[in-house]
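the two lines:
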Amino acid sequence: MTAYVIRRVWQMIPTIAGVILLIFILFNWVGGDPAQVLAGKISNPEQIANIRKQLGVDQPYWYQLWVFMQQVFTFDFGRSWSTNEEVSRILLTRVGPTLTIMIPVLLLETTLAVIFAIMVAYVRGTLTDRTIMIVCTVAMSISFLVYIIVFQWLFGFILGWFPVQGWSESFWKNLTTYAPLPIMLAVFVGLAPQLRLYRSFFLDEINQDYVRTARAKGVPEKKVMLKHVLKNAMIPILTNVGISLPGIFVGSFLLEVFFSIPGLGREIITAVNRSDFPVIKAVTVYLAVLTMVINLVVDVLYKYVDPRVSFK
Amino acid sequence: MSAVLTTPQPVARQESPGLWALAWRRLRQDTVGMVSLAVVAFFLAMMLASFTGLIAKDWSKEKGVSYANPSFLAGAENLEARSMATKEAAKAPAVDLSDIDPLAPRYREWEERAAKIAVTETKRAESLPFGGDKWGRDVLQKVIKGSEVSIFVGLCGALIATFIGTFLGAMAGYWGGKVNDFLEWFYNIFTSIPYILLILAFAAVAQATGSFGKGVVSIIVILSLTGWTGIYRLIRAEYIKHGNREYVKAAQAIGATNMSRMFGHILPNVSHVSLVQLSAHVVGFIKAEVILSFLGFGVPVDQVSWGTMLAEAQNELVIGKWWQLVAAGASMAILVTAFSLLTDALRDALDPKLK
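prediction for all of em together
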C-alpha cells in the first residue's frame, strides 16, 4: 500500500505543475499587467508599483513564473488587492463558515438520499416510483436561484422561522440559528439528482443473482434489502460522495451570497467582482491540490469498503 | 429482331436503413421524446423569431405603470405605481426666483422651443398580459427576449465545447502514446480544479481584461473552454474502442489517410455520443448562464436574460410582485425539463443497446 501511495503522490507532481502553469497563463499572460486591471480600483500609484514589483511584471515570463511558484510553495500570496488583507489569512478564516454549512449538508443529503432511494427502488415500476421520478426530473430543472429566492422569502420573510440572513462569531449560534435554512435548501435541492442516481445503483444490485439466491433460501425481504443490497450498492454511492467531497470547500457560493455567509464561496465571488487576482489564484491552486489529495484518500479508503479492490 | 438489346431491369435493392434513419424511427415511437422535441422546437422558434425582431421587438419600451398587474389580476391594488404617481404630481411649488436666477430671461425662449418638439404622451397601461417590471416593461416580452441570450449561450457554448472535446478525444484515442499522455495530462489539470472554481477563475480574467470578448460572447468562451472535459473522456474511449475494429483496418488497407480514418470513418460511428453529450451540455450551460448572469458576469445592462430577470425578481418578491420570478423560472424549467427528456430519448434512440 505504501508503494501505491508513493506512486500516486509521484503522479500528482506533473498535474500540480500543470495547474500552476494554467493559472499562471490565465492570470499573468491573458490577465496582463495588474496596473491595467487595477487602474481605477487602487488610486495609490505607489501601491500599484509595489504590486508590479512583487509580481515581477517588468521581468521576463520565466521569472514571473518563478515568483508564482515561490508564492505557491511558501503559502504567501501577499495581500489582497482590494482589502489589503493577507491572502493566507483570508483563506483560513473563510473555510470555517463554509464547512459549517457544507458538512451537515453532505451528511444529511447522503443519508436521506440513500434512505429514500432504497425505498423507491424497492417499489420500482409502481406508480409511486414513477411519480417520484417525474417529480425529481421537474425539481431538477428549476434553477437553484429560484429555490433560494423562494425559500428565503417564504421561511425567512413571510413565516419568519429563520433569520433572512446573517452570521455571528459563535459556532453554536451559527449552527443553530443561521445555518439551518441554507442547509435545508441545499439538502432539498441536492436530494433529487442524488435520489435518481442512487435508485439506479440499487436497481443494478437488485437484479443480481445473489439477491435471487438470498430470496430463494428464505432470507426475509428486509434483510435482503438492508444487508445484501445496501452493502453492495454502498460502493458506487461512496464513489459518488468521494467525487463531491472536494466541492464542500468551495461550498455553495450562491447560498453564501444570498445568506451573507462569510465563507470561501462568497469570498471568491467578491474577488472575481473586484478583480482581486491573488485571492482567486491562491484558492484555485490550493483547492486543486486538495482535490487530488482527497481523491487519493478516497481511493485508499476504498480498500476497506470493498476488499475486492487491490492497489495496482 | 424485336427482342434484342432490352436493357436488363435493375434489381430492386433493399436499402437497409442507416443509423440516423433507425434512430429517427425509434424516436418517433417515443411519445415523451416527441413531446419534448416539440417543446424544444417551440422555444427555438421563439428565440429565432425574437432574434429577427418578429416578436418582442419593443421589450424595452416602458408600456405599463410600474409593476403593472398581470391581466388576470387587473383589479388588484398596485401601491408602487400609486406612490410613483403621487410623487410625480407633488412637484415642488414654483417659487419665483426670477430676480436672482441669471437664466430667468431665457426661460420663455426655451419654453417656446420645447413646445415645437412634438411629444407624444403615452398612456401607461394599468395591466399587462403577464404583469410589468419596475419600469413598466412587459414581463412576457422580457421572457421571450431573455430566452434569446439564455438559449443562444447554451447552444453555442455546448457546440464549441462538443467540438473541442470531440477533436481532442479523437486525437488522444486514435493516436495513443505521447499524444494521449499529453492530452490526459491536460485533462487532469482541468478536472483537478473544482468545476465552479474553474469557471469563476476564467470569469475573473474575462471580467478584468475583456480578453475573452464582451458580454454574452465572454460567457460562451468561458463555458466552452471549461466544459469540454467530459465529452473528451467519452469520445476518447470510443476512439480507443473503434481504432482496432476491422472497418478501420480495411480503410487503412485501401490507403485511407489517418485524417480520413479519424474523421471520415470513425467519427460517423461515434457521432451519436457527441450528439447526446451536446444535448446534455446545452441543459447544463443554460443553467450555468442563468447563474453567471445573475451574479453579473457577462450580460450587459441593456440586454435581458433569464438570469438578470431572476436578479430583479429577488427584490420584487418581497413587495409581493411574483410574476417576473414565475415567468423566468417557469420558462427555464419547462425548457430544461424538455431538453433533459429529449436527451434521454435521444440516447435511447441512438443507442438501443443501453436499454
